[in-house]
Write a structure and sequence with these properties.
The protein is of the alpha/beta class. Helices cover 30% and strands 14% of the residues. The protein has a single domain, classed as Zn-dependent exopeptidases (Aminopeptidase, 3-Layer(aba) Sandwich), CATH 3.40.630.40. It has five helices and six strands, in the order βααβαββαββα. Strand 4, helix 4 and strand 5 form a beta-alpha-beta unit.
């Protein structure tokens, strides 16, 4: 199993960003590098803040829906649509070459290794999300679930989705699939080519484990234990 954690970092690479503390609080999937944990797995954590480089965006802005909000591979707008920073052509190129491509290569190599050793690979795309939608979210103004599962018609077997959903439902959580977020990470090398590269995205509502100031709540250990139980069952 491969745990992919793309948005946990607050590392800005010494960049001076407008309103950076507020945006880091709003946009970071806080503690997900610790919250999702299991034995005998490969954990791939991106070490740079998504404000600098979002590895879950398409490299080409023409293919990336979020680029119209200034939130493609390199963010130049903040979560309220205001200017975050300027990103030159050279800086974008450097970010892609030094951070985006190496991360995706690590993930692709990990999948290759799993396929070679076990004949199949399972990627769990590990995320969290705010309880209150932002302006650019399609569900702005609507109530959000406790857990969102993201699937892909080719890479997420029905039995995998159903098992994960049942687990959370039995724990008493409100669960939705592909809402408010959809899809799951699969390396382009394997995307729509190898069904043995399986993937599911798990998004947990941040209200379940932290407060709005960015501190863990008393429910954090419980949720971490539950996620560990789930991942062990998938392994």
């Amino acid at each position: 199993m491969i745990l992919h954690v793309p948005h946990a970092s607050t590392n800005l690479l010494n960049k001076e960003l407008f309103n950076q503390e507020r945006e880091l609080l709003r946009m970071t999937d806080h503690f997900t590098d610790d919250l999702y944990d299991a034995r005998n797995v490969t954990k791939i954590v991106f070490g740079v803040s998504r404000l600098i480089c979002d590895v879950e965006r398409f490299e080409n802005d023409e293919r990336e829906d979020m680029s119209r909000f200034g939130m493609g591979v390199c963010y130049f707008s903040d979560s309220e649509g205001q200017k975050l920073r300027d990103v030159s052509v050279d800086e974008r190129k450097n970010v892609i070459e030094n951070h985006y491509h190496p991360h995706h290569q690590r993930l692709s190599d990990a999948v290759d290794e799993e396929l070679q050793n076990a004949g199949s690979a399972l990627i769990v795309d590990c995320h969290s999300f705010p309880d209150s939608p932002y302006l650019f979210n399609g569900d702005f103004g609507k109530k959000r679930p406790d857990v969102c599962l993201g699937t892909d018609s080719f890479h997420t077997p029905k039995e995998l989705h159903d098992k994960v959903k049942k687990f959370f439902l039995l724990k008493g959580y409100d669960v939705r699939t592909n809402h408010p977020y959809s899809g799951t990470m699969v390396p382009l090398k394997h995307y729509k080519k190898n069904a043995n590269a399986r993937s599911i995205m798990i998004e947990v509502n941040r209200k379940l484990y932290m407060d709005e100031q960015g501190y863990k709540t008393e429910h954090y250990p419980t949720l971490k234990k539950e996620l560990k139980e789930l991942l062990a069952s998938l392994e």
